[in-house]
Give the backbone structure.
Amino acid sequence: MKHGLLSLILAAVSLWPMAGRADLTLSGYSAVGAFGMPMSSQERIYIHDNTVRRDFVDRGRYFSQLFDLAKHQVAVIDHASRLIQIHDLRNLQATTEVSAPANSMKMTMEKTGQTRPMRNWNCEAYNLNASIPTRLGNEETVFHLKGHIWLASDTPEQTAVSSLIKFTRQADFFMGIPAVAKVTPAQSRLFSEIIRKLAPKGLPCSCELETSYEGNGPMANLARRMPTRLNIAFQDFSGAPIKDDMFTLPAGYMVRQ
Amino acid sequence: MLARLACRQPWLLIGLVGLWVVVSGLYGLDIQHRLTLNPGWDAPGSGSELAAEHMRADMERNETPIVLMFSPRPNGPRDVDSPDYRQAVDNALAPLYGNPKIGSLYTYYTTGNAALRSNDGSMTYAIINLKKGQDEGVAAFQTLRSSLASDRLSLGLGGELAVYVDVREQLDHDLRLAETVSFSLLAVLLVWVFRSGVAAVLPLIVGAVTIVSSIACLKLATLFTDINVYAPNVVSMLGLGLAVDYSLFMVSRFREELANGQEPEAALYTTMLTAGRTLMFSGVTVAASLLCLFLLPQRFFHNMGLAGGISVASAMLTTVLLLPTLLFLLGHRVNRLVPPFLVLHSHDMSENGNWYRFSHFVMRHARKVLLGSLAILLVMGLPVKDMKVGPADSRSLPLTAESRQVQQTLEAHFTTSEITPIMVVVRSRDALTTPESLAALHRLSTEISALPGITRVTGLMDLDPSFGLADYQLLYQYPDQFPQAASALAEFSRDRNTLMYVHFKPDPTSPEARELVARIRALPEQPEFQEIHVGGFPAFHLDYLDTLSTHVPIVLLAIVGVIFVLLFLMLGSLLVPLKVVLTNLLSLSATFGALVWIIQEGHLSGLLGFTPQGALDGTILVLIFASAFGLSIDYEVFLLSRVKEMCDLTKGDSLKSVSMGMQRSGPIITNAALLIGVVLGAFAMGEVVFIKAIGLGLLLSVLVDATLVRMLLVPATLRLLGWLNWWAPKPLMRVYQRLNLGEGETDFREKH
């Protein structure tokens, strides 16, 4: 589940650079922390045309998430079990819209003035505040996502992946992980809408975010006492062409629709 | 009957044995593929065994942790907190990520757990949990090992499974070396002992056939039960030793009869009636004492008993079936091929022989000799009072072994070890997430955490120190709303079962760690729990020691009882079997004392090339006891059978019969001890302390037995007991005479 939240963030950052048609590879680390015990993972994002692939390692097991935005599909690949699960993104979008309509979301994003370099990119910090009403047990609460996001704009790599941006303008755009979308639809919806809003602003360098709940009931109180921190730090990027087989389903795996 | 068969159909017997050797040799070739780790040291029904079984069956967890140690190379990064170091670790681990045999993998970087970082910050280790344990775990480990490489960091694999794999590899090497050395040395010594090249070959043939037959029988046994990977080692060591012993005894007797002027056929009849019968008796006694290992609950010991029984039976049957045939076919040619430098030497069997005179001397000073030899045995046995018993660990391996180096690094450079926690497995009566079950779990976790020496507990009720029971009850009431709850339930529970990992400060092999297990087990029972079991290495260690302490006395009594009965049936005496048992116990206490002094306390460790163990493996002690007691009885039977034979001849002249018995059996026993000492000594050369200790222990036992016991203690006590030696209550004597299992056709007591 922790990695589900992280997946949403990573899916978001992978779609920000949408100004051209080429390949981009980002590599770095991610960490999801709750109860003071972070679970960290290697991360790689590959973008090619209208497909996005995320590779990550969860407790020593290698997974991939392969988004094909043209087909509205996501394939979750468990390499250790040689298992592929394919989900329809439109179905997921419909599910989340019922309990967390997009128009209930609030989001502000302001530059802080801080900058830091990543090779020849100049990454600028943004203060992100996003929230969406949700139910926690029987309580009405508000789910918040706060923190810093570092983006690099006006880079050569940004124009190289522009064709993807058209998908974020479509009304039925949804980018999320099935496991999260089914259990916590509001969170999933929030992340997907963040992707839509942030995409044109630049390429991702890193982010440090924290989730929390607002409310007066015992569930909200408990949730506030176990905030989850989501950190991503890319350390390198490459505009080199990516092999086509990175974006096709691996042969010999069992496929479940 | 066997002698008659050997004389009437020698070539048929040779042909049948040849066919058997070819078939069993081919059949047993791939025995390694049929052996397993399964019959282990787990005590059935013990807490640790139930915990392991519960985890396997109810929680589908059979994880085997492997330690992958990273340390800097000269050209590599030196600070584990640097990105460069992390990158090097990730690169090394990358080939493992798609490995389906790996259940989970944790590093300092993925968890932030400071326990995985060395104190000086130059080393770190990953914990790789293989999905399977035991045999499948070994295969997965080997695949994993072959896929690891790094040009920037030194990699080392450790943990229980890694130690096991290293032990197996070292053991295979040691056993090959031991078998080559012992066979070569045996060949030379047998020529010296027999003073005939032809006679010298016979024990080697019997030994080889015994080993081939035993391995085939062992493989056959795998069709009905699991056989442990160590069983062939026992078969090889015991089978070869006994085969040489038995052949020596029989060939010597045959040549003695030939020297007395008998024709080969008559000599063979006499040999089979005397030596043949004695060695059958001895074999049955040794096998019976080994089969007493079945009284211990651990299946490992059952395997050792079975392997021992098979090797004794093979040695015995090969000696009485094949050897008489060979002796008959060879006839006087058995004395051929005498090396020139041995021509002038010959055994003196007369009343002027050295052994005869020596035993006369001993019997003349029987009291002094008895007291002196008893004093030496008691002094040798003194260190037994400091004996500590524990299971083998990586210290059994040579310093160069990878898994041992990793263990040493863990102990020297890391604050706590994360791979040997105590595991508490709980099955609740109701659903695990009911308020009542959670309250009971919370109480248990709090009580365990409060025990001295516990550093932390991880489990459902230990996610955050600021959380109280009410917080956890709310959290687990809505696992679909709190991803943290769902994640914790997935990690620590399944249905009504949950697992707690208890980390502690003391060394996992220490008495303090075992005391912690005992204290956890002693915590008040909670009605909400249907079952609770404490497992993990310290619990296994505690159960292992407990089982040994309750069952070993029973095994000892059984062995002593079996031997007492069998010796009575052979000798028709009540006191001699009693004396045999007592002297053998003394001899064994001397052996164990020496083992404590050498293996546990480390004296002579430099000379023998091993690390002091600080404790003796209980398995070694039981195996040595069963084998050495059997071998010791072997020699006693050889000696007493000749003394009894002489008694029958001299109509009960105690002085003469003992001296003549000593004269005739002394050289054979000494030579047998020398030969078996060579075999065992070759095993003691091994680098794995487990086998070195067994080889050394048995070697010491044979030496003590053949010298102090057989040369001094036995003749002195026989002399002092006088007529009581052969006394038995009349009803028992009638039983003995009716069964007539002894060597002689007549008994001197019939005349009285």
Observations:
- The first helix of chain B runs from residue 2 to 8.
- Chain B is about 60% helix and 5% strand.
